[in-house]
Design goal:
Chains A, B, C, D: It comes from Maribacter algarum. The structure is a homotetramer. Chain A is of the alpha+beta class. Chain A has helices at residues 38-48, 96-99, 108-115, 131-144, 184-199, 227-236, 257-260, 327-348; strands at 5-6, 11-15, 22-28, 65-67, 71-72, 75-76, 81-86, 101-102, 149-157, 160-161, 206-213, 241-246, 278-279, 282-283, 288-294, 303-308, 313-317.
Chain lengths: 354, 354, 354, 354
């Protein structure tokens, strides 16, 4: 209810504030008998961690996950998997610019209004640091979903947009550059642009695209919990996300039905895939693909005027080491959330037929 | 779990197939003591019902709702509100074109794959007829949310796009035309266009925009159940929806943080509203606004080739009386789903502080 | 949340007041492809219905269930099963003795306090009439659980206690008498006693025992949702229930561990069954057995003093046709709730192992 | 779903195996602004911890809880409270008697059947060690429920039964002896008896009674989630519990309605309290009282024959330091679970009326 749990059968609950003692979570419902590759989990965390390249925040956090339960002799036991990532970067910052004033387009103001007060250190619970816990659970989900391939990548930064269809990209190149864009030329342009934006003390938005291959037919529930509705919620729950579209998306509204409809081949596959791999909320076996829009990071290293708790105007400035563009580090988060959704529906689908 | 329930505290469960005996639902958790305006509920149903104008399906269904429980002496009792809408239009259609073959971009194929068989009459559970139950519950939610104004309207049909900002529109005009577009000129163009598309036996997509005013600060949960994430899921769960964006949305990715950030006035309101009324997943008291993309209706009255259950090619054609464009009738559905989300968070918000 | 839903995967939501238009429910998550025996469902309702014998209330209600959805061509479709039982016995009673005063040991007072007002007709939502909806869903659960045998029976009425172990009873005799006690002699004594109590205008309590045979190993979840914990909750949620014990129960507290422990046979079965078929919250394949204590019905046809809404003393008397002893009619309710629990865990168990 | 979460609005999820790295949990939904008394939490853990007296297991575990999140400047923030208790007693035991064989009346066999394998060390997840996490969350719940007094105490050990009504006991004496029985004479007898049982290498069962005072009217939901049903589930979810009864309980079945009914005083209180403070599933403001039956601990230090995984007979013996009687240490667990139930319903009750 309080919104810190995701999933029903494959269920993740997270806890932790940015600068508290630890963040972490409990993954409940992971089936017993899954061999866990701990290195693969840490590798996903490393894709998300700060300080990994020149175009992300230079904050240092090793983000080492400790597992407390639920794994025995290398395999999941069917009992809850408790884990924690201790915050090593809790040095006594100067938080005076946050403590008593509200940074624009951050959650400071609404937290104070909703809860009466807040843990202001580093954004507290509203920090995207929480997503590290999602990446841990998502990495386990990926291992459970062995055959399914989830490929997220950066397709837009500011105005720089990768116009190619995903079919024309080599998705194995995503990790070959710091931006995580599978087109080297575009990646280079994006990198140069992000550096320029950072130099200005500013930030810029972007889009992550995701393609999911080898999805079995039948995942997703027909009414409120449509597969794409849950994917949409999953993505919109990631910090800074402003939009989600799948298949033909917003462009599809301009099409006529006769052109938009995906005609069947005799094996049940479709000749086109405007549906984006989902029909009536249920996967149809074609590739699932979707776009996720991220706004520019709110923390800019430029002076600005804002208000304090009493509504007085105060002059302030972003401090610390922040991301000029969030999308390179958000790629593994998008994949993790997609994996959590698919894992949940995979288990649920076992209960559908007599 | 099986996906027919929406909400946690203000919780709607729906049932019913397009051509079964009745559709309906149970609304649980509606607080006691709410005076129910039954006419207002029926009016919302009338906004959604078939046959209401020249640009929607000419099928006739009175869509009269019967309440079975939970309302006594004109007020909610705090017990579940059970209701049903009997299907009056169950005449013995010829379903042979649906029964054994799969209509492109419909849910026929995936239902058969998922469940082993399906109620093929009129699309069964996958029909948008189910949304009538949502409108009933949403109408009750609206009554509970008295002060909050939820205004959905059609902002795009095909390429015809209303470029004005919602602040420059008179939203009271939405119901003044059949398209439900608050700009009369644009509404006329859209209507002409929809009629032309119908004449071709084709269909066209569109966008519904929604503006929610007078939202109190503090609605929404900070992590997985962010207000906009739940709104997004709610919208994506409506039949034919392909995308959702709020605030600056997909366009916002092109902006820099310094421009995107919403500076505060001394009363906590913001000078701009790129945030779309939500910060960190929690309402900040500014207008909430979002766009919902609808694909063109899949049922086209044109001949096409598809496959039957055995994968054989069959020649077929859409029959019956279908909508050439879904958005005019979907306006009350968008509002209903928004109302359900807000009602749920309104109740939850009572539990947040000591 | 508001407590009108039971189960997670095999999930029943009920609605309806005693003297409203209809009671009913939605059963969501029943797997597709189950052939439904409608007669068997009605037969279960008939075991619960008023007026069925000389020792129950003589109120007349046919309790005919109508199914609105989720069943097609005789089989479940995997979509929600909506159903209703219209109340035929809504004649304009004189409710003055209930409307403004609080009957002792009824829910009148607490409903008014909790909700601000109440539907006072026949007890409204607090009436055991609601359990008819449970019997409908339970009957479907029974059909899904084909191999499992759920046998509830009356084992005590007042001081009249069936001392025999269930192994020494012929459980097929339960339906051979009006009391639903599988021992004919004891049944006759109980029947005589109940009639005598009724003649006094009084009521008497009783115990229902339940034996579940052929349960597969592995049902139940190990911590909060132990099989017996959920069974316990299910039983305690039935009107008038005051206690639940399984296996050795309250008597078991007097035993030493060396005597209480159930030693294994080489096939995993146990020589004794103090565990009651459940170990660590999980079924072990042995018979599950438990007892459910029902208090005497609160409505007595004797004059008594009580209070009205203002706290004034009022003299009143039970009216209408009430059960002198609730256990004969509660036997199918106990079975229905047990079936709902087992159906839910049966589905969940499909998700436990990789 | 997988059963490691308790509560809806005040929601505890626990993790951890007896001899894993740590046990712990996440408490989500605790309202913001609650001042947390950490010493009081530790004190509750100390009431439950091993080695606290001569009549419990002499195993040494400090059971020190660390909080990771959700508490800031001494108060809850409204975000999830993550906590862990590291297991210090993980020395390399000899588990050969458990690893390959099934201890009678333990969960060894069913875990292997359900999950395919198990963490056999010290009982793994099935160990009552998990309840320490419940005590942590329950202690927070108690602090939230400031005015409500929850008093559990031992009322029976083997045949030794405290016959006095709770009104005739001084419940402040519960902590004055190692048994936690508020009657000194009976406590002394029980203590002597437990020591004798332990000397035999055997164990004995017992009953914990619980009285809850100052409960506001209106807690509990009317149908499936009746207050006593949820309390019953909470208690039955505690290791070794075999039965639950409240108010008149199993004895009440022998009473007639005219005697059992609780007549009202003019202030809404009742002259008697056979209802046990709950009517129609909703608290009525009178004392809530109930009994919880605990079977004798299954681990006996006596030789016995059992089976191994292949069904071969093996001769074995309980090892280690186990409780001869579980009830003294279970008193704080009963209180914790009661507190969790009441906290959940307290929050839910804020949403019931308009």
């Amino acid at each position: 209810m309080a919104g810190n749990t995701f999933g029903n059968l494959f269920k993740l609950t997270t806890f932790g504030e940015s600068h508290g003692i630890a963040i972490g979570g409990v993954l409940d419902g992971c089936p017993a008998g899954l061999e866990i590759d701990l290195d693969a989990i840490q590798k996903e965390l490393d894709r998300r961690k700060p300080g990994q390249s020149a175009i992300v925040t230079q904050r240092k956090e090793p983000d080492t996950v400790e597992f407390y339960s639920g794994i025995f002799e290398g395999k999941t036991t069917g009992t809850p998997i408790g884990f924690a990532i201790h915050n090593t970067n809790q040095k006594s910052h100067d938080y005076s610019h946050i403590k008593d004033s509200y940074r624009p387009s951050h959650a400071d103001y609404v937290y104070d209004q909703k809860y009466g007060f807040r843990d202001y250190r580093g954004g507290g619970r509203s920090s995207a640091r929480e997503t590290a816990s999602r990446v841990v659970a998502g990495a386990i989900a990926k291992q459970m979903l062995a055959g399914i391939k989830i490929n997220a990548f950066v397709s837009q930064v500011g105005d720089l947009r990768l116009e190619k269809s995903y079919q024309d990209l080599d998705l194995t190149l995503t990790e070959s550059n710091d931006v995580r864009c599978p087109d080297s030329d575009m990646a280079a342009q994006m990198e140069t642009y992000i550096k320029a934006v950072r130099k200005e003390g500013d930030t810029i938005g972007g889009i992550i695209s995701c393609v999911i291959q080898n999805v079995p037919v039948g995942l997703g529930e027909p009414v409120f919990d449509k597969l794409h509705a849950e994917l949409g919620k999953a993505m919109l729950s990631i910090n800074a996300v402003k939009g989600f579209e799948y298949g033909s998306g917003f462009e599809g509204v301009k099409m006529k039905g006769s052109a938009h409809n995906d005609q069947y081949n005799s094996d049940g596959s479709t000749k086109t895939n405007h549906s984006g791999g989902v029909q009536g909320g249920i996967s149809n076996g074609m590739d699932i693909y979707f776009n996720v829009a991220f706004k520019p990071v709110a923390t800019v290293i430029q002076g600005y005027e804002t208000i304090d708790k009493e509504g007085n105007k105060v002059q302030t400035q972003g401090k610390g080491r922040h991301d000029p563009c969030v999308v390179p580090r958000a790629v593994p988060i998008v994949e993790a959330m997609a994996a959590l959704v698919l894992a949940d529906y995979t288990l649920l689908n076992r209960t559908i037929q007599l």
